[in-house]
Amino acid sequence: MLRFPNTFFGFKAYDGPLSTTTNVLHYNTDSPPCAGRTSKGDGYGLSATAKSTTTKKKSKQSSLNSPAISLKGFGGYAGVGGGSRGRTSSPDSVQVYPPYELDRSQEALAFYDYVEKSCIGIPNFKRVALAYFPMDSTGDKEEPTKMRGVVALRPIKKGEVIIQIPYSMAINLGTDGTDVTSAAVNLLHRMFLDSTNPVFKMLPGINSTDCWGSTDFFSTKALDELQFPPIKEETLARREKVRRRCQSEQKSQPKLVYNDEATYELNIEKAVPTEDHLRWAVWLVASRTLTVQGSSDGLSTPTSNKLLIPLIDMCNHDRNSLHILTGRAAPGGMLKVIAGCNIDVGEEIRFCYGGGIEGNDRFIQDYGFLDDNAEAYNIIAQNMIGRKKYSATEINHIYERLSETSMDQDEDILKEQKLTIDMRTAIRFRFGLKKAVASLKSLN
Q1: Residue 93 in this model has a pLDDT that exceeds 60
Q2: What is the pLDDT averaged over residues 242-261?
Q3: Residue of 41 and 207 predicted with greater confidence
């Protein structure tokens, strides 16, 4: 959603089709952005009821005539409009959850205003807005966990622009290929210098649950429970880089002190950034920045820049998404998301992280989520079976670790209710990988 090492999916350096190669214009998004964050309500309240998946497939062409939803709360279609946040009642008085709720928190409203003022003449918020989507639809009495993403407010045709952000509005954290802790320190300094910027207010907080799915925040035990040494080794190496960079930063003046709300003040008596804050910033760089090529003079290779691009960086992941990202990191440049298919009102805007070539071994480190698509595990299994990424010694070690528990045992453990987020994520990862390895081996 971005990483260490960087694995992205690319923006082309021109307004053409998306490239599957790396090192062009790459995206590094979040966890899914704000994954796991729950909506607590803000009193504005708009519940929207979208059509079922089956209905969408049958009436995709006619759905483009659906009325738009207004971010201001005016207009809409059946089941859409002002009202209470959360559950809505069906005709049978059965409590059901709406597919999404527009984010009208104070932070979001300030963010919308900031983007609109910075994108004069670009109607982003007539096309899309931020919204919370339930992560399950069980219908249980307890309100489900919600994930923030980007929703279409009106029908969008294939080939049309979904989101358009000027390069001048992006926050450039440095060139790609440099030590990721440099970009993280740059981010912390930018947040200190511009602490009221609404873009920074939309980032997951240092103590938020958004971080917990990433191995950067795993306990030692959870790292071991992955039963996958390459991830554990890379995570520990990254933590060591953070530790060393902190030691280096402690010698600089003035020293910045960051509190838990991610606000900043000068204090020459305390060392900053703290290791916890720098680790958090490293994860933000991995999960939220895009690596975008600059302009070329035709003689030298264009530089690749790590950019925090408002709104675009809040789109979630879908391996099957057809949407295209395009643009350049150059004065006057535009960074865009182009519709790769027709989009109905109320559909979430997602695109594929990692260009379709990355698996859950990257997602769990750089974003903090696991892709349930089988291909996200098959990619890792293929690298193991085909020895495409690991040496014979490394592969043998991986198999030894994975054999410590059976798939049945892993399933039994996952049924436990008291697992911490990192432990549950680790066991889900190893279970999914074992399943993929077994499936691929049966085909050979």
Answers
A1: no
A2: 68
A3: 207
Q: CB of 443 within 8 A of CB of 387? A: no
Q: Tell me the angle at which helices 229-249 and 275-288 cross, rounded to the nearest 10 degrees.
A: 120
Selected residue with higher pLDDT from 17 and 73: 73
Comparing CA positions, the residue from 29, 31, 47 lying closest to residue 39 is 47
Token couple for 226: 């992955």
Q: What is the CA radius of gyration of the chain?
A: 22
Higher pLDDT, 247 or 314: 314
Q: What count of residues does the chain have?
A: 444
pLDDT higher than threshold 80 for residue 236: yes
Do residues 313 and 290 lie in contact, with contact meaning Cβ atoms separated by under 8 Å? Answer: yes
Residues 223/401, Cβ–Cβ less than 8 Å: no
334-338 and 324-326 beta bridge pairing: antiparallel
Residue 278 has pLDDT above 80, yes or no: yes
The yes-or-no verdict on residue 121 having pLDDT over 50 is yes
Domain spans of the chain, in order of start: 374-443
pLDDT tens readout for residues 403-442: 999 999 999 999 988 899 999 999 999 999 999 999 988 8
Q: Which of 202, 174, 196, 359 is nearest to 282 (CA)?
A: 174
pLDDT digits (tens, 9 = 90+) for 134-186: 875 444 445 667 899 999 999 999 999 999 999 999 999 988 776 789 999 99
Q: Where are the beta strands (DSSP E) in 28-169?
A: 46-48, 81-82, 88-89, 95-96, 100-102, 128-134, 146-152, 161-166
| Residue 281 contacts residue 189 (beta carbons within 8 Å) | no
225-241 b/e with 16+ CB inside 10 Å = b? bbbbbbbbebbeebeeb
Tell whether the torsion through CA atoms of 154, 160, 165 and 168 is positive or negative.
negative
Fill in the DSSP letter of residue 406: -
Decide the pairing of beta strands 316-317 and 348-351. parallel
Tell me which amino acid residue 434 is. Answer: K
Average pLDDT, the chain: 76
Taking the C-alpha atoms of residue 304 and residue 292, their distance in angstroms, rounded to an integer, is: 5
Q: What is the pTM of this model?
A: 0.77
Which phi and psi (to 5°) does residue 307 adopt? -120, 140
End-to-end CA distance of the chain: 33
**CA angle at residue 166 from 163 to 171, to 5 degrees?**
105
Residue 301's alpha-carbon distances to 159, 172, 293, 297, 298, in angstroms, are: 29, 18, 9, 8, 8
Integer CA distances (angstroms), 88 to 42, 82, 325, in order: 17, 12, 35
* Cβ-Cβ contacts under 8 Å for 363 (sequence gap 6 or more): 317, 353, 354, 369, 370, 371, 376
